Every structure is written in C-alpha cells, then in structure tokens.
Please model this.
Amino acid sequence: MMSQLKRPSPIRHVVHVAIAAALLVVARPAMAQSDEGIVLGAVAPSVVVTNGAGKTVTVTPTLGRPMLIEFWATWCEFCERLEPTMKTVYGKYGSKVQFAAIAVNVNQSPSRVAKHVKDRSLLYPVYYDGSGKATQAYEVAATSFVVIIDKNGKVAYTGVGDKQDLDAAIRRVL
Model:
C-alpha cells in the first residue's frame, strides 16, 4: 500500500522559506553593490507600510533630499550586525538624509517589530511591510538589503549584508 504525502503546514512553509532566504545570504559574501534588487538608476517607488502605531503611511523619497531604506527582520543576524552602522549613519546624517527601516513580513508581526525597536532603542523611523508590497517594489532578495536614493529620486546604491560601507555610499549622494 502506498502512503500519501502530507503537505507541510503554512507555518512550516514560511519557516522553510525564511531559512532558505537566510542561507542564500550566508552562501555569498557581503557586497558593496548588490547584483540583486531594484536596478541602479531606477526611479525609487513610493511604498505603503504601517508605522509603529499601526497606521498606514506612504514612504516616499523626497526630491532634493537623499534617502536610505533598509529592509530588515528581527531574526536576521546580518541585520543585527548592521544595526550599529545604521545607528551611526543616522546620528551623522539624520538631518540631511531621510531614513526608513522597513521590517519584512516573514515570521514577524507588528508587535514583535515594536518590541525590537523599543528594546534596541532605534531612533530612526521603522515601518512594517505587512502586505509584502514594499519588498516587491524594491525587488528585495534578502534581509539586510539597503537602498540609497539620490536627491533626484533615483536608486544610487544597493547592498546586502553586514559589511556595507553606508557612510561612503551616503557621502556619494550628498
């Protein structure tokens, strides 16, 4: 008698996808310029996300002012190691550059993101991409993905991993 194959539960599927994404990041070295993600020179799209209060907001690059967007997750080790760099560049350039840290919706919840922000004393704006549309719009292939947008609203830098030189990337768009 043949046994029937069981379908994995949706939760197990999400966990497997998250593990696969993490392995993808681990399998390749950190890059200064990512081969994946939104194309350099593309017009940066506006995206709809939720803020810490659960309100829907639109994150839009402002013409005339550069912007840094990080796509991250509470469970991402690379994001955790990139966090001190994010804090440093926010402290140094926060008055000249818009910042948005967008939490991806894989194995997270708004409450988990809010707790992480509070526990880590993150001062830059943090949002949650519950629909996954922001992640799609920027063609995010892995967490710790950073996009820097120039004053004209065009993508000037993309990178992934914990060893990104964000200070140099920001200086190039100022």
DSSP finds five helices and seven strands in the chain. The CA atoms of residues 76 and 111 lie 17 Å apart. The longest strand covers residues 67-72.
